Amino acid sequence: MELSISDEKTKELLTEVVIELLKTKRDLIYDILLEALEEVGLANAIAEGRTNDFVSEEEIFSILDGAAK
Predict the structure, then answer these.
(1) For residue 32, what are the CA distances in angstroms to 3, 35, 46, 60?
(2) Which of 1, 43, 45, 55 is least crowded, fewest Cβ atoms below 10 Å from its Cβ?
(3) Cα separation of 51 and 45, whole Å?
């Protein structure tokens, strides 16, 4: 016996599931969206930073050594 449902019924059921998830897992969804936005911001910052000249590792460590003293 084969079970089948129409595309319209599938869409309706998926819509109900998404709405129920939004209602019951609001905090989780908020955290996921916030994390995604932070990742996009970080990726944009990295891409923007790559247009500038790179700083050598030695220069970074010399600055850090100076700050530690």
Answers:
(1) 34, 5, 21, 34
(2) 1
(3) 10
Residue 48 lies in a domain: yes
Number of domains in the chain: 1
Q: How high is the pLDDT of residue 52? A: 65
Model-level pTM greater than 0.70? no
Q: Which two tokens stand for residue 65?
A: 């050594």
In a domain, 2, yes or no: no
Domain that holds residue 54: 7-68
